[in-house]
From TrEMBL:
Name of protein: HK97 family phage portal protein
InterPro entries associated with the record: Phage/GTA_portal, Portal_HK97
A Pfam family it matches: Phage_portal
NCBIfam families with a match to the protein in the record: portal_HK97
Length: 399
């Protein structure tokens, strides 16, 4: 029962001001309607960009080492990076986690790990947010799925933007974007109504009101058909000068209503709250540095939520962890990659085959050997250079 239904039922028992039952009161007091975040095209575009980029990164299984961390390739790494879910590709699986966490799940995304009899991961099953309920108790919480309770350790719970009172539960950005979504929805409705409004004629025809034909609608249609409608495109109109006068108008535009500036400002605000560059929403021009900063400050932190939950719930060894590889996301030109890789090859920090892998090229057998300039020598051999010894090369020849 809405507000006005309650008032009408109450009016029978108690006297009430009649204004509250009018249409004007409804338009003044009631909100036009709830706008879901996932139905807003601007927010949907931002979330799509984030989910699409995160799901494009390769998932590495890494192991801590004394001289650095090493990538491990085994069945476990293949399971997470190739086929985590039996009926979805890995990209769609990660995309679903991110988009659900940011939108439909209101900051939460639940995945149920199916374990076989040997204790190995058999499947990772995405759970629809509509059948999930997070219940607070002394554990500190349980996850109810279709009426069945699971402890927080039994499921993968990806949470974004933790709530203040329940830090284990994500809250997304529903509150921050609510007003902006309503404003953009109203702007879209106004623009649509403005563009389809019939009260925007570009031509006004003045007709002598004393003309008998002008007195009726059929007569007015007859005048239009006689003098105007039958004319071909581009053909001049021939009309009586003393009876009909034609004026042209410049109709009111959206620019005059300042809707364009308002929508632009709202799009910039939405982009800033979500953390994506405004040019994703058609505001401004592409900026390489801004895009790379977006990868560092928005993509990687959200990816870390997934990395840490996978590591915490799926790995037993304290030396192993999952990691997304973000290098492919950065906006680098081929020239920059060749230049940076070439310098590392000169320093013997990488082989030429590793450089070819950077560039997406297949390895070659003759590119595995490390190359270096002759004056690149170890630190402890600096004093053994012939040019620093007495006699230099002559001493070497005498020996």
């Amino acid at each position: 029962m809405n507000f006005f239904q309650k008032l009408k039922s109450k009016a029978r028992a108690e006297p009430i001001h009649p204004w509250f039952l009018t249409t004007d009161a409804y338009d003044t007091l009631c909100i036009s309607g709830y706008q879901r975040l996932d139905t807003n095209p601007e927010i949907r575009t931002c979330v799509h960009k984030i989910a699409n980029l995160i799901s494009s990164m390769t998932i590495y299984l890494m192991e801590n080492g004394e001289k650095g961390d090493n990538r491990i390739k085994n069945e476990l790494s293949r399971k997470l990076d190739v086929n985590p879910c039996s009926y979805m590709t890995r990209k769609n699986f990660i995309y679903w986690i991110v988009s659900t966490m940011l939108l439909e799940g209101k900051g939460n995304s639940i995945v149920f790990p199916k374990i076989d009899s040997a204790g190995l991961i058999d499947d990772l099953i995405p759970i629809q947010p509509g059948v999930v309920n997070i219940l607070v108790n002394d554990k500190p919480y349980t996850v109810n799925i279709n009426g069945k309770d699971y402890t927080n350790d039994d499921v993968l719970h990806f949470a974004y933007n933790p709530a203040s009172n329940e830090p284990w539960k994500g809250k997304g950005f529903t509150v921050e974007l609510k007003d902006l979504v309503e404003t953009l929805a109203q702007a879209t409705k106004t623009k649509k109504g403005f563009m389809s409004d019939k009260w925007k004629p570009s031509v006004i025809i003045s007709v002598d009101a004393m003309t008998d034909e002008f007195a009726s609608e059929d007569g007015r249609e007859k005048i239009l058909k006689r003098y105007i409608s039958d004319s071909q495109a581009g053909k001049p109109w021939v009309i009586p000068a003393d009876m009909i006068k034609v004026d042209t108008l410049k109709p009111l535009s959206l620019q005059d209503l300042a809707i364009t500036d308002t929508v632009k400002l709202d799009k910039q605000t939405i982009a800033g709250l979500i953390g994506v560059p405004a040019f994703f929403l058609g505001v401004g021009e592409f900026n390489k540095d801004e895009y790379n900063n977006f990868v560092d400050t928005t993509i990687l932190p959200i990816a870390q939520v997934i990395e840490q939950e996978l590591t915490k719930k799926l790995l037993y060894s304290p030396n192993l962890y999952f990691k997304f590889n973000p290098r492919s996301l950065y906006n680098y030109s081929l020239t920059e990659m060749v230049g940076a890789g070439g310098e590392m090859v000169k320093l013997m920090a990488m082989s030429r085959n590793e450089l070819r892998n950077w560039l997406g090229m297949s390895p070659r057998e003759d590119m595995e050997e490390l190359l270096a300039l002759e004056n690149y020598i170890p630190q402890d051999k600096l004093g053994d250079q012939l040019k620093l010894l007495q006699g230099g090369d002559n001493n070497a020849k005498d020996e």
